[in-house]
Amino acid sequence: MKKDNKNVTRRSVLKTGLALSAAAAVPSIFNINHAWAQDVTYDGKVFDAGGATLNIGEWGGGWEEFVRSALTNQFEKDFNCKINWDSSFPWFPKFVTKGAKDPVYDIANWNLPNLTQTKNAGDFFLNTDEVRANVPNTANCWEFAFASGAGVTWAYQPYVYAYRTDRGKAVNNFRDFWAARFANKRGTYGTENGLMHAFFMATAREFGKDQYDMNAAFKALEDAMPMKVSEFTFNMLSLLERGEVDIAVHIEGEALSLKQKGVPVDVWQWDSHPILTQTKTISRYAKPMQKKLAFALLNRTLEPSFLNAFGDKFLWRPTNSKATITASLAKEGVMNTASATEAFWVPDWNFFVKNKLEITDRLNAIFGL
Predict the structure, then answer these.
(1) Which structural domains are found in the chain, ordered by start?
(2) pLDDT band for position 232 (50/70/90)?
């Protein structure tokens, strides 16, 4: 098993997180609404931060390049501050190592499984009510943007099947993944990828009595073998493009980008409508100036102008009701309306985090990993 330079294994980190989660479930000082949590307010206006540094945790690569050019470079000028950007994920071990009162990041961007694991391990983040009171643009967000309880979701994509259109009839049912015509041509992800986590709970919901029916999900995934197991979505796109898989677990925007290239691929959104989210948290014990800057940066992130540009670039949907759907998604019938968003399902990530060790071990055995 691969270890980092501190000799900490993946399993030991997970165990630490679960143990801390259990401790956090007991009433303790971690759950007190400390008076100094209310020490900063923000009204949406530009202010002079006096050259302060804002520590953020967010994805790197092309994502970072775009967000810097479209958002944070101008933010640094407007607010007289400096962004210290860290893209070396995961955030969880960094937060728990430094502790809640000495936060490694003032603001961080997450997918919900990792956010939930960290939230349950201590008093790290402002709750959604505290954030909403200080980020004016949250007033225009759909309610599911606050489902985490510890941050604000600013962009999302539905989970879908991406499938080759030159391999027979269209996919229109969750169980089509198990159809005989896709034998040996199915694609999914390793056990550390959030797409696998969501697929597991959606499979439990489809084949069992609810999303918590783990045995039903294990049995169904055994029946789907052999599958090609990828670590990343971009690699899965390559497998689809080369025809090595005919159907794959994926997310809407990335899969449609392949279709737009002319590859014979289309998508079908799962009828349970789970979503992959990008959610930002603000650290409860960030220093006052950094906390105010974090409010301001989140408010700028939720501006329709940024969300529109981000959607054009990466085909993510916005949670701000005032933002628009990028033209390429609009051509597929995607809308940013109350009726178009009311069916979205945020799986119970608290349940998943609690059972992650068992799920991971059993899926690794099924996949032969």
Answers:
(1) 10-156+277-334 (3.40.190.10), 157-275+354-367 (3.40.190.10)
(2) confident
